[in-house]
Amino acid sequence: MSLVDDLVWLIDIPSPTGSEQRLRDAVAERLAPLEPRIVGNSVVVGRRTGRPVMSLYGHLDTVPDQGNLPARVEGGRVHGLGASDMKGGLAVMVALLEAPALRDGPYDLLGVFYDAEEGPADANGLELVLDESPDLLESIFAVVMEPTDGELQLGCQGTINARVEFHGESAHSARPWLGENAITKAGRWMAAMHERGWRDVDVAGLTFKETYAVTLAEGGVAANVIPARFVLNLNHRYPPDRSVEQAEAMVREVCSDADSVQIVDRAMAAPIPEDSPHLDRLRALVSRVSAKTAWTDVARLAARGIPAVNYGPGEVAQAHKQDESAPIEAMEECFRVMKEFLS
Questions:
Q1: Is the predicted pLDDT of residue 275 greater than 90, yes or no?
Q2: Global pTM value
Q3: 292 DSSP 8-state letter
């Protein structure tokens, strides 16, 4: 089958988060000669022969259907749910795992098709896969084939969400001097957040973005009551030049005017796997290299000691769109690059 045929096949097996079993089983059946191992709603494929291990990663799940099924091929693109995020990457993974030249090549190639990436971070199926697959921890290099617009994207930013509270005192809105308005008390701090924007941070010659964004707000109980409490969510994205503890300290400093700051979740950034001959080889094959200015599962792999990068054929701007699509040419180029790299 061609890459296009495989992508249509993958799209036409719906797999929204929480319903990946059917696609998991289809992938396992397709790659049965590679001795698939079912781990929860994920599947790991590939034989160990004693050669150095290279591993490929892609998530099976998509966001919910938006009327974009079944797949269709039109204008040099494959359209359908998950085409770019990330069934185009899965199609390339399947083709690489089935390639005879790579089966006889210098590496034991393992493929990980995991579940629940699009849902809450603590439910991501990759953690269970890594816990139960010690052979993956032997990987000398890993590629997460999330959409990257065909760029080789290195590292990834960490993320922190903080619950920020401003406290006041309730009163009748006709007599505001008898209370303290928690919402307007936060005004100066919110204006500072609005003006803060982002800061470019250079790490190993690549530009990451440090950002602070207020993403949720809740306050007030009635139209005629001065609010005694105002609660916001601050989302901080930080580059891989600092630890999660350092980033958390920066959040607390930025929120020093608030009455209460609670870190509700956090994820570490992923370093660039420097001094890796495999990264050097892959960089030489890809025309565009950039920083990953978002969080991806390369961070989970880095935390387990696996040097990992982001490289996939999907387009970032197409992810989660109602008319999501993936360019056929990009899949072919990604397959060509990865086949040469793994040879």
A1: no
A2: 0.89
A3: -
